[in-house]
Write a structure and sequence with these properties.
The chain is mostly helical. The chain is built from 15 helices and no strands. The mean pLDDT is 79.
Length: 384
Amino acid sequence: MEPIDWNYISANRVWRQNLMKELLNTGEEIETPKLKMWRDIHDDSVSLESYWYTFLSPKFRRPALLAFRITVFSALPLMLISREVAHKFPMFRVLCLYGIAYSQETVGEQICMLCTVFQMCLWTVLWGTLMYVFNVLEHDVAWWCAVFFGTFFVGLFGEVRCKRLSIMMILVIMEVQRAQPFANGPYLPIYVARDICLSVTFSFAQALLPPFTMSKRVDDAMAGAWRHMGVMMRNCVKGCWTENPLEAAAALSKTSSEPIQAMFTVLPPQLNMVRYEPWESPLRWQLRNERIKVMGGIMPMLHALAVVVKTIHSLDLKRKESDRVRNPSVDIVRGRLEETLEPYLQAVEETLRGLGHALNPKDVVKKVPLDDPACDDVRSAICH
């Protein structure tokens, strides 16, 4: 589906408004603006160029690369290991399954998963050893009681990251011990934990080829939020000051803060994963956390700005319908402010864009234009 040519529609509307004025003044009709046809509007087929752009887009390349990493560096090696030396691994049937399940996209998520799995393996060894020490495998009633009370005991812990995996491994290790009662003797829990550590090692290897960092994802999301604030402010001003109703409607439709709200939903868990990346210092993590708090304090003002702009626009439409006489002084003030308002909005966007790319306070002072002269121009235009 082709995009709508809003510029043509706006120009056509202005042409219709000026047509009668020119006919009354000069008697000459203005030439109608020509509509640009880029392709046949009745053709709904997809070209090969569209597939090529889709193939090169980041939204396709990144999931494809992630699937390739998991398949080549995690799934296939574990399948070959489980096939060739199955007699050495009690968990050979699910080595590949664990490798795929524990694979993450970014380095921070993968290190977090690595720590979680190591905790789970320690609990697996401890619980499996207790089953042998108390000879639970020889008594069905004791075995079922261990299943119930073991999962209940682990469930009593609070917000522990490995709680669900530990509950799962209680059942897994007990079923493996029941299915192979004479295999490896009391060392079977250690071998099971070794197999799981082998799977998560391959999962960690795939996360490094090539590495994607959670810190970059968080910084990009925060930079996008700062840019959206600047665009939102520009659209609010345009919705108030523009004379073209189509431009005003298009600008007011872009004053929503939903992208920033979505960022507040996704960013805190991602920011937690940044702690696990070894090259990120606690200071940089704290600076990111403070930025999120600052944006949270700005959000009520942005909501109020959007509501006020929409209210002013609706009242202005009602005033234009009831009052046909224009005040010349209003046009003078409007023209004087419009000359300085555009540079001011450009300076605000540049400042917000710079805040999105500079995290260190020293970089903020050097790179972000905080003292743009456009602010003084707007202030003087308002005062005079």
